[in-house]
Amino acid sequence: NDGAAPRWFLDEKGRVNNLFRRTVKRQIDYAKQQKDIYDADLIAAGGIKGNMTQAGKQAGERAKLWFAWSRQSGMNSTTTNSLKQAQSLNGIPTKQEDWDTDPLRLGVLGGIIDCARKPEKLKPGQKPYRFIENKKDYMITMNTNVEFVEYDEQASHPHEEVKRGYEMFNNYLDTFIPEHLRYFLQKLMGYSLLGGNPERLIAYFYGPTSTGKSTLLNLARASAGEYGTTVDPSIFENRNFNTELAVALPKRLAVSSESNNRNIEAGLFKRIMGNEEISVPLKNSNIPIKMKPQ
């Protein structure tokens, strides 16, 4: 849980290990509770164990067992071995390419935008997308970390940040984008948030300096959140270990700038843009990443 709504996320802060520590704390708390029961019964018996009740004696035995169990559970080796054992359980291990692969679902703050509605099945007034709750079966880890607000509600939205963003984007369009290109540009930005590349598109922004190219790319990159990345043009070079390509494969938007006359390997470029599965070897691993660029 990210504090707003349930979602999967990559554990980069050792939260699973923290769960072990929380469990150990509960074990210790229970052992202390049983020890208190034992001590109270011993006092009531005048300090003579032979005069204690059966319940008091049992509480003492439970306290010993749970203190010992908490010490064993709290060892680093126990935590590490338990996590390794969990990796062999049915339904637990997954591959990277199993996650975030539904091209028509987009994780946003508080839920998911589902674009799976078919236009021919829409009822009057229905939109081809809907905002739905995230579910663990969707296996979505990525998120834009941006609140979803309908475009026609942004101008009068109660949050000043949303209204300001709406004004700034429209000011940008008025300043830099001719009116006849605006719909195409907005379609292109929307397309970049969908998974895969069925249209086999790559967008080049070319023009004089100070014409808003970088502004637009930065805006698209920021709004994509975890679905976007910035890559070096060397990603299109054919190398044994193309780490940048491995990182970019699951992303839906990869932004690059200033190619500086770098050579682009045509075959690799075609595979990346061709909506085909790509295999990328990784250092220190015998298992390459195999997936379609998202």
Write the layout of secondary structure elements.
Elements (H helix, E strand, L loop, with lengths): L14 H30 L9 H20 L2 H11 L18 E4 L2 E4 L15 E3 L18 H4 L5 H17 L2 H14 L20 H12 L3 E3 L12 H6 L4 E3 L10 H8 L4 E3 L8 E3 L3
Parallel strand pairs: 4-5
Antiparallel strand pairs: 1-2, 2-3, 6-7
Helix pairs in contact: 1-2
Describe the structure.
- There is one protein chain.
- The protein is mainly alpha-helical and 294 residues long.
- Helix content is 41%, strand content 8%.
- It has nine helices and seven strands, in the order αααβββααααβαβαββ.
- The strands form three sheets. The protein has a three-stranded antiparallel β-sheet with strand order 1-2-3, with no helix packed on it.
- A hairpin with a 2-residue loop joins strand 1 (105-108) and strand 2.
- Helix 1 (15-44) runs antiparallel to helix 2 (54-73).
- It starts with 14 loop residues before the first helix and ends with a strand.
- The model has no long low-confidence stretch (mean pLDDT 85).
Number of helices: 9
Structural category = mainly alpha
Q: Which ranges are low-confidence, i.e. pLDDT below 50, for 5 or more consecutive residues?
A: none
The main pleated sheet reads as: 3 strands, antiparallel
| Number of E-state strands | 7
Key structural traits:
mainly alpha, three-stranded antiparallel β-sheet, 41% helix, 8% strand, elongated
Please outline what is shown here:
The protein is mainly alpha-helical and 294 residues long.
